[in-house]
What does this fold into?
Amino acid sequence: MNSLRSYLAVLRGSFMVGMIYRFGFLFTILGNVVYMSVVYFLWRSIYGTAETLRGLTFNETFVYVALGSAVFILLKTYADWFISYEIREGIIAIYLTKPVDFQLYALAMSLGSALITLAAITLPTVVMLYVVFRVPIQAGPGLALFPLSLGLAFLISFNFDFFIGVMAFYSESIWGTSITKEIIISVCSGALIPLQFFPQAIQNVLLALPFQAIYYTPLMMVTRPDQGWEVYLPMLGVQLLWAIVTFVVSRLFYNQAVKVVRVAGG
Amino acid sequence: MSLIHLQDLNKHFKLLNRREGLGGAFRDLFSGNYRTVRAVDGISYDIEAGEIVGYIGPNGAGKSTTIKMMTGILKPTSGAIQVNGRPPYENRIHQAQIMGVVFGQRTQLWWDLPVIESFKILKEIYKVDQKSFDAHLGLFNDLVGLKALYSQQVRTLSLGQRMLCDITASFLHNPQVVFLDEPTIGLDISIKAKMRSVIKELNRTRKTTILLTTHDLGDVEALCQRIIIIDKGKILYDGDIKRVTALFGAYRTLKLQIDGFDHTTIPALRQRLNDRFGAQAGIAVGETEEFWTDVTIDQARTPMADVLSFVISGFAVCDVRIVEISMESVVQQVYDGALR
It folds into this structure.
């Protein structure tokens, strides 16, 4: 795979861009510390004296919400923003004259900056959960599958963002669409609150949609790691399916959009 | 077999006719009122391997559209286009490997990273081996001394430095053809000179075919043996540069600022010059900038000094500039039959 090297080079470049803005990097870490403290005290008071709410203990909810926000930021690829910018400014023309696949190029860009977030937010959050808040994270099949699940979740999230970004070929501004997408995903995916807190009927609908594969699946694996392989492997399978479906759909959409632009104008 | 072959190439765009005002904007939402713009209108030419061709014309003439078709970004509406024997919009990834592109207005470099990192990424994208990579950067360093810039972030470079780096990048994979779209726009004389010498040297040593679009006739004069002039999507002239330089070499434009300038000034001046020098004197009067009157003079027919002293004696001239003929005037001259 010789062309893999070119995308790795892009990924490396994107990672370096994140490193160059050192202060942004440091403040992100600091902001996350503050955020986690707020979340801790908020949920502490919601639970009050109750042992469990909706079958989740405080520890489980806190891990879910705190990790949830860390994962949420990690899975924000910003691909919709930079792709639509590049399309509107015509920078896309430069990619079209290079021997690269634009979708994979954008994916490599997003992965590069995600690695920065991983180092600045996700890993510190895990450390803080463990060291400062002393929340035990149980080892088990769930934890073992978590990184894989997170990877698939990233791919699904990227595919959504890529799709929205490509809409800029048709519409001057994707600002509204992008905000709407963000709200829908944060609610329907279980990033804001665990899906168990929704009424049963709504839960059933949400579980059938691709959004839950972004946050709910990986987060379940760390908050309920006590369950066996037979629970997690099917969840991973569903995730994989959604990753493939969204990848293919957004790719077809992109190919179609480029074809239209090729024919209709510059 | 020529490297680039265009045969009766057309590119038409459909544009919505926008109406005025807020009401018009609402009605435009449902409008089917399109007009067709013929950005490229039936052009044909061949470019042989190793040529440097100047592709010139005023804004909106169709230069960039042609380049976008040659690079496979746009698909022609009709007609044939082949680069190295293949249509560029098919098999894009393969075609991209044999061409380099510089869009003067945009950069292919990574804005936030040191220059060398962009080169390294391009090295992987184009699968350039380490030896040719080093040799290439060494050559550019010899030509323009870029090494000092390698560790600088692209966004801290001046426009001229960035453009030199962009050109370095576009030649990195030793392409057969390089398209330079307005590479000298906004650059000062010394950087322009550097750039011209680099382009010339690469064309000489590597036989890279170069298609250069520019507004600056000086670029064309310095680099090209062949010039193609395009306007409104059609080819006006395709041939030896010598005939064209002879043409605009003889022309100078006298820019005058006349006291009490109003809409009667230009017709009055035109009339007086016509009375004094006659209709065949090769003098044209027009306005391209506000408050400046342009008098374009063919020095082969009428000495400029005569015109200048005549104008000064008859009009209250408060400022004078003498400029080389502009792209627009060349095109106008060609329309008027100067090359036939």
